[in-house]
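Human:
If only I could read C-alpha cells as easily as an amino acid sequence. I am handing you a single protein, as its sequence and its fold in C-alpha cell form. I hope you can help me see how the letters and the C-alpha cells relate. Thank you; the sequence and its C-alpha cells follow:
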Amino acid sequence: MNYKAFTMAEVLITLGILGVVIAMTLPALMSNHRKKIAEVRLAKFYSTINQAILRSELDNGPKEYWDKVPNGFVTGEDGNADKTQSLVTPWFNKYLKPYLFALNTEVEERTGEGKILVYFEDGSLLQISGSSFIFFPEAKDYDVVENESGSTTRDTTFSGTKYFTFFFAPYDKDNKYYYKKGVEPYMYNWDGTREMLLNGYYGCYQANKQERAYCAALIQMNGWTVPKDYPLRF
C-alpha cells in the first residue's frame, strides 16, 4: 500500500515560512495590544481620578481652595530630608485617598521631589508630585534613570508611549486649562491648536528630546483613542 505524506524537507520549509510570518507580524500585534491597553487605562484613569476629586469636594470644599500639591520630603531630626516620608503623602491622604481606590502607595526615594507612587488594581500606576501627575498604563514600565546632571528622573524616551503627563492646578487663575478643573493632560503654553500638540516644545513627536508632555492632550482630543497619525510606536 502507498501512503501520501509530506517529506521532511517540505515540513521544514513550511515551518520556516511560518516562522518568518510570525516574526514579521508579532511586533505589530504586540504594539497594537500595548496601544489598546494605554487607551483603555488612560480613559479609565481620567474618569476615575476626576470623580474622586468631585467626591472629595463634598468634604474638603472647592478644589481651587485646596492646599497646593507639595514637593519634597519631611525634614528629619538630623536636619536632613527623610526620604521615607514625602510631603505629598499627607496631601494625598486628605484629598484623594478616601475617594480613590488604590492597592498601595509608596514613596519614591530615588528622586528629589518627594514623589509618591499610587498603584491601581488594573495594573496601572500614578506618580504624584507638585510638578506633575505622571500616569503609567502599566506599572511594570515604571523606572527612573540618571540624567545628564547626575540626578534621577523618568526616562523621557518613553514619554507618550509608556507614560503620560497630566497636571492638577485648579488654583491657577492664569491658566484656563486648569483653573477650577480637575486632573487634566499637560497643556501649559498650549495655543489650542493640534499642530502645537504635535510639534511644539513639548510636542508629541519622535525626535523630541524633551518631555513629550502634550501626548496625553493629543489622545484626549481624539476621544481617548490614539489617532491614526500618532507619531510614536507603542
